[in-house]
Design goal:
Number of helices: 7
Shape: globular
Structural class: alpha+beta
Strand order of the largest sheet: 1-2-3-4-5-7-6
CATH architecture: 3-Layer(aba) Sandwich
Number of strands: 7
Largest sheet: 7 strands, mixed
CATH superfamily: Gcn5-related N-acetyltransferase (GNAT)
């Protein structure tokens, strides 16, 4: 029988990442970095806006505020973490836990640090925690995002499909977790 998500599972994640890749709770001092991470996901839109810095800044501010409001509405207990490589901020991990399990709301690594294992380290640590607690993990991924195949390799299965996104869930089993520990 699957157990419900243990309180503060997310808060245990930083202690499990002790190598080159770590995560820390995002704070008020991280806002400029978080803006940079968000802007890195809008390169196409920024290119179309042209070179005017004021227009680009206003666009990023508006879009970032809309994202934060949407997350606050749909995932009120979401916690934002900063992904770090040897202490340097490299990305963001936004997680939400409730009675349905744990949701990866967003994981974004700055382009200069992609393909270096940061997302992998964070997700493996997270999945070890959720496996130990018997907690399912949910996420949404764009249908044309190649990372969806990696999620499938990690045991995520498609639970629904919309015109843009695939909803995926990973349900751990005791046998899987015991096998990983040996």
């Amino acid at each position: 029988m699957m157990r419900l998500c243990q309180p503060k599972l997310i808060m245990r994640l930083p202690a499990t990442l002790t190598g080159a890749w770590q995560c820390t709770l995002a704070g008020t001092g991280d806002q400029a970095f978080l803006r940079e991470v968000f802007a890195s996901t809008k390169s196409i839109e920024l290119h179309l806006l042209g070179p005017d810095a004021g227009t680009r800044d206003a666009f990023i501010q508006m879009q970032m505020l809309a994202q934060r409001r949407s997350i606050a509405l749909h995932y009120p207990a979401a916690i934002e973490l900063i992904i770090r490589h040897h202490g340097q901020p490299t990305g963001r991990l936004w997680l939400h836990e409730d009675h349905d399990g744990l949701r990866v709301v967003d994981i974004t690594i700055l382009p200069a640090f992609q393909h270096m294992g940061g997302a992998r380290a964070c997700l493996h640590a997270l999945l070890n925690l959720t496996d130990a607690d018997g907690v399912p993990v949910h996420l949404h991924v764009l249908q044309d995002n190649p990372v969806r195949h990696w999620y499938a390799e990690l045991g995520f299965e498609i639970t629904s499909v919309s015109s843009l996104y695939q909803a995926m869930t990973r349900i751990p089993t005791v046998e899987e977790h015991q096998h990983e520990q040996t």
